[in-house]
Amino acid sequence: MTFTTPLKRLPWLALFTLLLVLVGVGLLTARPGTALAAEASPPIDSAALAKAVVAMEQLDQMRISLASTLEGRTEEPTIETMKEVCKPVGMRAIAIGKENGWQVRQVASKYRNPDHAPAKAQERQVIDLFSRHPEINGLWEPAVAEQGAGLNYYRRINVEPSCLACHGTKASRPAFIKANYPDDKAFDFKVGDLRGMYAVHLPEIQAALAVAAG
Ligand code: HEC
User: Fold this and answer.
1) All residues at 6 or more sequence positions from 109 whose CB lies less than 8 Å from its CB, including other chains
2) pLDDT 10s digit of each residue in the chain, 214 long?
3) Cβ neighbours for 63, distance < 8 A, ≥ 6 positions apart
4) Which of 65, 162, 167 to mutate to test the pocket of ligand 1 (most atoms within 8 A of CB)?
């Protein structure tokens, strides 16, 4: 009789083990499920948000390093040297938008290229905020109704000493600027002034997929 007791216990042990396994499987399957649901709930994944911030830092650095190549030059910038500064920055902004499915613009109240005039109430409000708060470098806003679902990232652009060759006093602007931008407003800046901002619209992923699917 003594040896039957362990044998009798066996089915219970087996059942208990099976229960443990089932609970374990349940936990394993439930965990990734909840994690996936939590990851899927934000409209835009955090990697895209970080990528937009980094892309605008790199774009701004591109302009600063291009403008610094003009420093120390005694000759007046020409249409050729202009091609080396703000025009390629504008083209790169558009290319970054195309590569990532975002819309990237430069916006300025005192603009040189009229395409860069503020186009929305939100853009005007953020420019106003940046001009009143020099300590704010960038910020996120929900997309406005006409853009559909998504987020907007704004990043300030400050005036550096190297910008004054073309954005300094009205009279000192290079001749090609006076000739090519008759409605130019982008002069009379001082070092440290707010020059404008980069505006990035990231559409909500689900909305973007729906548009792509037609
Ligand atoms: C060689 C001349 C030149 C220099 C130097 C220069 N810019 Fe520009 N900038 C221009 C021209 C020309 C445009 C208009 C480009 C276009 O048609 O898109 C412009 C446009 C811009 C714009 C887009 C908004 C607008 O007004 O159309 C910003 C922002 C800007 N410049 C900022 C800067 C900053 C900041 C610096 C210094 C780091 C700088 N620029 C240096 C010539 C220059």
Assistant:
1) 117, 118, 124, 127, 185, 196
2) 444 444 455 444 444 444 444 444 344 444 444 444 444 445 678 899 999 999 999 999 999 999 988 777 777 666 666 667 999 999 999 999 999 999 999 999 999 999 999 999 999 999 999 999 999 999 999 999 999 889 999 999 999 999 999 999 999 998 889 999 999 999 999 999 999 999 999 998 655 556 666 6
3) 85, 86, 89, 157
4) 167
pTM for the predicted model, two decimal places: 0.79
- Tell the residue number behind the tokens 């374990």, with chain if given: 24
Q: Is 102 in the pocket of ligand 1 (CB under 6 A)?
A: no
Q: Cα separations (Å) of 195 from 25, 127, 156, 205?
A: 58, 10, 8, 32
Q: How far is the CA of 100 from the centre of ligand 1 (A)?
A: 24
Q: Where are the alpha helices (DSSP H) in 136-204?
A: 164-167, 175-180
What is the Cα–Cα distance from 183 to 210, expressed in whole angstroms? 41
Would you call 142 helix, strand, or coil by DSSP? strand
- Say yes or no: CB of residue 163 within 6 Å of ligand 1: yes
Strand order in the sheet with 138-142: 103-107, 194-203, 150-158, 138-142
Q: How far is the CA of 49 from the centre of ligand 1 (A)?
A: 26
- What distances in angstroms separate CA 8 from CA 1, 16, 18, 21, 29, one per listed residue? 11, 14, 17, 21, 33
